[in-house]
Write a structure and sequence with these properties.
Largest sheet: none
Number of strands: 0
Oligomer: single chain
Helix content: over 70%
Order of helices and strands: HHHH
Shape: elongated
């Protein structure tokens, strides 16, 4: 599926994955430093409380796979919306990573 997409779309999807992974990679040390009470997402907080760091990690991976699949479909069906849709996903991932760094690792 990913290989049949135009090269531009592949790059956009890889940037989306990288941004989402940045959020995940900064989450664990931030929570280790400030505690899970700082997490604003109740789903992630509950997963962490019941499963440890593996819960939010699995959730993030599944959500990222779903988002990338949806973005791929948007890119195939509506190519003119692919860039903007990917920018939203990248922005959300980078916002999550930034908040983990700013409020969990630096403060």
């Amino acid at each position: 599926m990913l290989l049949s997409a135009p090269l531009r779309s592949q790059r956009l999807l890889l940037i989306v994955i990288a941004a989402q992974l940045a959020d995940l990679v900064t989450f664990v040390p931030a929570i280790g430093r400030v505690g899970i009470g700082a997490e604003q997402n109740p789903i992630v907080r509950d997963l962490f409380m019941t499963m440890g760091a593996a819960g939010p990690a699995a959730f993030k991976v599944c959500a990222t796979v779903a988002v990338v699949a949806l973005l791929y479909r948007v890119g195939v069906r509506y190519p003119n919306l692919a860039g903007r849709s990917c920018m939203v996903a990248v922005g959300l991932g980078l916002l999550g990573a930034w908040s983990n760094i700013a409020f969990g690792l630096v403060s």
